[in-house]
Amino acid sequence: MSGQKLRLATAWLGGCSGCHMSFLDLDERLVELAEVAELVYSPIADVKEFPEAVDITLVEGAVANVDHLELAQQIRERSRIVASFGDCAVTGNVTSLRNRIPVPDLLNQVYQGGPGAIPRQSPDDPIMPALLPTVLPLHQVIEVDAFVPGCPPDPDRIWAAVRALIFGEAAPHDPHLRTFG
Amino acid sequence: MSTLQPENPSIERRIALQRVGRIDPESIDDYLAEEGFVALRQLLQSANPDSVIEAVTTAGVRGHGGAGFPTGRKWYFVAKADAPVKYVVCNADESEPGTLKDRLIMEGDPFSLIEAMIIAGFTVGATTGFIYLRGEYNLARHRLENAIRQAEAAGFLGRDILGSGIDFSLHLHSGAGAYICGEETALISSLEGYRGEPRSKPPYPTQSGLWGRPTLVNNVETLVRIPPILRHGAAWYRASGTAGSPGTQIVTLLGDVNWRGVVEVPFGISTRRLIDDVGQGVKGGALKLVQSGGSSGGIIPPEWLDLPLDFDSGRAGVVLGSGALLVCNAHRCVVDLTTVVMAFFRAESCGKCVPCRVGTVELHTLLQRLTEGRGTLRDLSLLETMGAMVKRTSFCGLGITAPNVLLDGLRHFRDEYIAHARDHRCPAAVCAMQDSAWGELPHLATVG
Amino acid sequence: MSTILLTIDDRKVHGESGETILSVARQHGIPIPTLCQLQGASTFGGCRLCLVEVEGIAHPVSACNTPIKAGQRVTTQSPALRADRQMVLELLFAERNHYCAVCVQNGDCELQSAAAQAGMDHVRCPYLSPSLPVDASHAQYVLDHNRCILCMRCVRVCAEVEGAHTWQMAGRGIEARLVADNGVPWGESTTCTSCGKCVHLCPTGALYRKGASVAEMQKKRGFLLRILEGRELGRTGEEPTDDFLVPTVEIRS
Fold first, then answer.
1. Which of A79, B46, B302, C164 is the least crowded, having the fewest Cβ atoms under 10 Å away?
2. ipTM of the assembly?
3. Which chains sit next to A, with 3 or more Cβ pairs under 8 A?
4. At B282, phi and psi to the nearest 5?
């Protein structure tokens, strides 16, 4: 890989990975992207640790638990530009539908009272990351430089945003490229 | 706490409160013995309603509900309006926190309000009047009901008053405890039986008010000034006060002072004199600030204590509003004060417009975060942006004034807000600075 | 009526006395965003999206209820207005649970499109995430409080056009809620004529026709037997059942 290339990362917090699926739907535009950018961290690349000196990070998903919180803060420290990628990162979206329910009630309902066998582990298990009292959109946790709404953002919208962020083109102003949902 | 002391002539001048505490408020004879209904009698004999507008205008009376609109002009607008039916409405929905002046008048001298309303009706050409009374004012309601009955029996209310051919009937209406109904168009909606929500202005009530008729809406304290002015003349009234705000005002002094209560003083007196000479000094520590004009008013910092209190002092930043002065000593936290004020507006917003309905809740939520030690500097900047936005864009006076104390607090005590937001510290040690839901979870670096 | 000349966005325009800034601007093809405004019904003025600047007035005014005046100079687009409109929309999105992705009205919503038009791409203030009910008691329609922006369009059209006065606003401030017949489930309303005016004029997904959301469709599988055996029914008094057509696989919900 050439050292000239932009260091691009994508991250997956509290979301359904639909935004990443839509990203893969860039299809042949991914080849064009690969010519100028190197994917240094992503759920679709086997990298364990979020690397240093990243140019642009697209973050999918809302901040729902302490792991998300930690990763989000790491991303901010190590990225020049952070973009909220998709409605969950931008608004909380479906991930935040649980905000009206207190966390203990939620865990009880899902793991103790819900369908199927009660899991052996307790919700307090140290392996499970603790849920935050409320799910937050990314920009209410860290500073965010750009917003790409959509559930998921369709490939054209992603491409317009990527071109703006990577190729320095003007940000898309067309209202139909920035609707929620 | 006593509400009224013997008059201290070196600082007080009682016009609106002239009979309060001196007569039996349930006896029309007591009222008659103290120049009661003299102004009305003379007016009916002269049969010259224009003279009233002239006297009120020359005296320079301005609305004591908080806005300070010239009373003579308002009366003139209604008087000249061409309509077969007009109304006079007294705004007695005194709901501004810390303001008890109208209550004292209605409890202590109810006949003076009745006389003033008959005069108003005669002047503008209305034969029906309504008193819209704050729902919680039970004693005032009892005394006004009694006074209306006695005035009717004595021929001051009803048909052909004192043989003049003039009719005037007066109705008492109790509110249901909504602050918004102190806003004149919301008051009118409520009086008509609708939800207490403000209406678009224009048309102003003077053109199209109650049931679409020209309507004079005046505050209690404004109205009761009219009979003595008619009796003694405009020059007598202008003998005290300032050029722009002649006469006197009633101040409700409360908070950290040694004497708390209601006092009537000439316009233009300084806050410092009120605190020192009437309030007998600050209690429990040094003076930190004075919140003036109730929750919708503003903050007077110590360096402004010598500015005169009048309708025009708003230019310097001192809001007189309803005449409430809440004195806070150094042990009070300005962020805590702001949070309490915002909780009030959050509860009292009628819900009609978005900035007030949601904005007051968001501002309160952000302020609460500061008091729980969970705030950030970005919260602070959002508070400032949103506070200004709510003030700029709300439908009526409630939303427009709701952020006043917050914006004044940020202006005069910014360091204290920063201590809460950045250092998670309450300098006055008032705020809890902890929050049960987030507990030991890490503070978010930025929110907003 | 007299003709009044004024300036909107540096364009000389005219209107009749008594007309509002909004109405005159629209007649001249000058767009001003609105949400609560509803042509054919009375003016409400609550959404505050139609704020414009008028020279000589310190604060912006709402175009929908401000009458035009001769010589008035009106500005409909400025950075300050853009910021105020964006924050109005942020407040609306923060107030209730407006998640476009899972809303029946996704793609045909005036709130959603107003946000995109205004360039409101994120909400800075805390989401209030209230717990609000959905009233599905009506046979044909649903009221979802989670999507309601209290624009009063339904209240106005029901009272002023249909004449039914079914809808009212109850509660104060943030607790304000749309209610039918002073607080009964919509399906129990005795005044509602089921005309559907409110549903079609609702700018968001707060009022919608049943059957529009996922897994809501209910099939009337018994109709065939009812048609074929209807004559028998009168004799036996027995209702043909849907039983034999119901799939035997039980789907757990």
1. B46
2. 0.93
3. B, C
4. -80, 140
